[in-house]
């Protein structure tokens, strides 16, 4: 089981060979996948998204469980931000992975590896 960081999806959509290989295997295995609503915001927040890109994002989002940022996740994200000096979006994404008990799949392992009890896998 994995929580996907926004950049994991972006690299997959840009046909990055490593991201495509890792995520294709995960999609084939029907591994449970999660994203934070923060990731959803970030994906749809890019300027100049084409209709095709929006369709690709929507297709991926149909295969994952989208976890809302509730009070428990918000408080954990605040703790992460305060103690590890990570930006708010990444703090919420990390808190989502902790909440779901999943490894975080990301290209940005440098920042996330600092977080105690967070399992991180590089894409």
Question: Can you give me a brief rundown of this structure?
Answer:
The chain has 123 residues and is of the alpha/beta class.
Give the helices and strands as they follow along the chain. EHHEHHEHHEHE
Count of all domains: 1
CATH level 1 name:
Alpha Beta
Termini separation comes to 14 Å
For CATH, the homologous superfamily is named as: 5'-nuclease
The number of strands is 5
Uncertain runs are none
Reported CATH architecture = 3-Layer(aba) Sandwich
Instruction: Give me the side-by-side strand order of the main sheet.
Output: 3-2-1-4-5
Radius of gyration: 14 Å
Enumerate how many helices there are, as a single number: 7
**If you average the pLDDT, what whole number results?**
96
The proportion of residues forming helix, as a percent range, comes to 55-70%
Classify the secondary structure makeup into a structural class.
alpha/beta
Globular, elongated, flat, extended or rod-shaped: what is the shape?
globular
Task: Report the sheet-strand fraction.
Answer: 5-15%
Q: Indicate the CATH topology.
A: Rossmann fold
Tell me about the largest β-sheet: 5 strands, parallel
